[in-house]
Amino acid sequence: MRTARAxxxxxxxxxxxxxxxxxxxxxxxxxxxxxxxAIAQWERLREVYLNLGHTxxxxxxxxxxxxxxxxxxxxxxxxGRALVARFRxxxxxxxxxxxxxxxxxxxxxxxxxxxxxxEGEGDYLLAGDWLLAGTxxxxxxxxxxxxxxxxxxxxxxxxxxxxxxxxxxxxxTVLDEQTIAYYPAxxxxxxxxxxxxxxxxxxxxxxx
Length: 208
Fold this sequence. Notes:
Elements: E1 8-12, H1 35-51, E2 55-59, E3 75-78, E4 81-84, H2 95-105, E5 112-113, E6 124-127, E7 130-135, H3 142-151, E8 155-159, E9 172-174, E10 180-182, H4 189-198, E11 203-204
Parallel strand pairs: 1-2, 4-5, 7-8, 10-11
Antiparallel strand pairs: 3-4, 6-7, 9-10
């Protein structure tokens, strides 16, 4: 039986959220964005987190960085240490320094910026003692060794093969230290075998 625990989140208000470029299959600049609706939904989510007893910090959004709202991508934080993202796409590169500065000023005195492309907790998820690490579309596989050396935790590399699931967190979520849920078709055969071996009781998702 899973036990709820308080968590610590960082959120970025979608003040400047928009879709003005396309760097994944879900982004269509021809479709309008309802910014007031996005802000209302964000405010509601933040309220839910707070009412459940979680801690929510916020980072100031930066004009011209519409994807900064996806705060999980900004860094990987484990055991009080922060490895700041290095984004693949030019449109997002400036997010890295913004998250670096916030972390430096908010309890993480020596955050390190990744040397290789590493899209933060979009591709890195802590599951018990392991750090599950995605690659295939965004994060460089060389970033896996870098993360292991930095955090001192075993990193399990997982290769994504479906471009609709370009970040690990679009295909896998950690429910507790022993349990994950994932979409099998998003992973390479070898990575799928690893997941089955490590998490035999995982919740398997199916296509909608």
